[in-house]
């Protein structure tokens, strides 16, 4: 129950039972209602919030934590919030948490293993009931360490075998891209493969390479280039590829910002994206339509809200399972067939 004590304007103690008596409901009903955001909630929930406000009642999470052993707070670990996809996913988690009567707290780790453990420890020291991890590394690392401590954990965006995760089917998405470029007639295709420790990056790149090789267009290892996930990294990697492979006709970047960096590099080399070299990205961020970027659309809102629900199942002693969501290829002007002549 959320109750502790508050005082009304007359100085008398107001408890959750006071609110329940005035509302004509059980105290547990008041507790559940006060954990919900009244905005958009049913009329009964809004009425209880209004009565609590009128009586001067203020719930304290500290009291609830002492009674239930739960803080009604969850921690979220991301590599950085300047990454639009991680920020969008956290916002979806936060909205779902508020709806469930929980508070979401975020910490950034910069994908650094030592910082990951320090930030996870800090969130746990604040008494969070569980963690959603958006920055897992393929070596298991601190995710295994958290699990060994009995911490309820759900992964999002990046997955790991043996851990509950909510991800997009990244390998399928990569295959959609590889098949699209091969079907257009491209034979000299490069892949900006992202981060070697990220399951999302590696699965996307592997899916694209597999689909191309299935069609006899196998890019060599020199055309599959690991790099950072930002515009600058995509720009630098693309410039190097163009210098070394002037016959390149298409490139798949495993996120949209890398793809945008690649498009800048193409123009600096006197080439037009979509006409001279096809470009495909991943995520369909807000700027992708304006850039006419062919990309893979992912349900980030759905991914974040499902991850929150899966974590709450674990926190409350229920089972949870991994979920893979379906990607969608969105074709725009940046991916045309190779030029003839």
Report on the structure:
The structure is a single chain. It is built from 13 helices and 14 strands. It has 341 residues and is of the alpha/beta class. Helix content is 45%, strand content 16%. It has helices at residues 16-23, 27-34, 43-55, 61-68, 84-99, 113-125, 141-148, 170-184, 199-214, 231-244, 256-268, 287-290, 300-315, and strands spanning 5-7, 13-15, 73-78, 103-108, 131-133, 153-156, 165-168, 189-194, 224-226, 250-253, 278-280, 295-297, 323-325, 328-330. The chain folds into three domains: 5-66, Orthogonal Bundle (434 Repressor (Amino-terminal Domain)); 71-167 and 299-325, Response regulator (Rossmann fold), CATH 3.40.50.2300; 170-298, Response regulator (Rossmann fold). α1 packs across α2 (27-34). Mean pLDDT is 91; it is low at 1-11 and 61-68. The longest helix is centred in the first third of the chain and has 16 residues, at 84-99. It is elongated, with a radius of gyration of 24 Å.
């Amino acid at each position: 129950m959320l109750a502790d004590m508050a005082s009304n304007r007359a100085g008398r103690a107001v408890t959750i039972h006071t609110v329940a008596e005035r509302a004509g409901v059980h105290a547990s009903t008041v507790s559940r209602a006060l954990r919900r955001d009244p905005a958009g909630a049913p009329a009964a929930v809004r009425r209880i919030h209004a009565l609590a406000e009128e009586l001067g009642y203020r719930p304290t999470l500290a009291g609830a934590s002492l009674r239930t052993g739960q803080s009604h707070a969850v921690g979220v670990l991301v590599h950085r919030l300047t990454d639009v996809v991680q920020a969008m996913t956290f916002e979806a988690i936060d909205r779902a948490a508020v709806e469930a009567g929980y508070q979401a707290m975020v910490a950034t780790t910069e994908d650094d293993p030592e910082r990951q453990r320090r930030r996870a420890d800090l969130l746990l020291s604040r008494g969070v009931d569980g963690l959603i991890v958006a920055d897992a590394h393929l070596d298991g690392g601190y995710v295994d360490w958290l699990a060994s401590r009995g911490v309820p954990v759900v992964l999002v965006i990046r997955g790991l075998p043996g851990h509950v995760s909510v991800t997009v089917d990244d390998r399928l998405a990569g295959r959609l891209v590889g098949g699209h470029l091969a079907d257009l007639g491209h034979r000299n295709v490069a892949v900006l493969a992202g981060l070697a420790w990220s399951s999302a990056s590696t699965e996307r790149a592997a899916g694209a390479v597999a689909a191309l090789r299935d069609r006899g267009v196998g890019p060599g290892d020199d055309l599959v280039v690991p790099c950072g996930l930002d515009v600058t990294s995509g720009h630098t990697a693309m410039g190097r590829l163009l210098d070394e492979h002037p016959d390149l006709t298409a490139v798949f970047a495993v996120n949209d910002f890398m793809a945008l960096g690649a498009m800048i590099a193409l123009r600096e080399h006197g080439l037009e994206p979509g006409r001279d070299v096809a470009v495909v990205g991943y995520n369909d961020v807000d700027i992708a339509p304006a850039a006419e970027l062919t990309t893979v659309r992912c349900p980030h809102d759905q991914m974040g809200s499902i991850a929150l629900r899966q974590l709450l199942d674990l926190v409350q002693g229920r089972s949870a399972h991994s979920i893979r969501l379906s990607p969608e290829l969105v074709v725009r002007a940046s991916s045309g067939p190779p030029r003839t002549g």
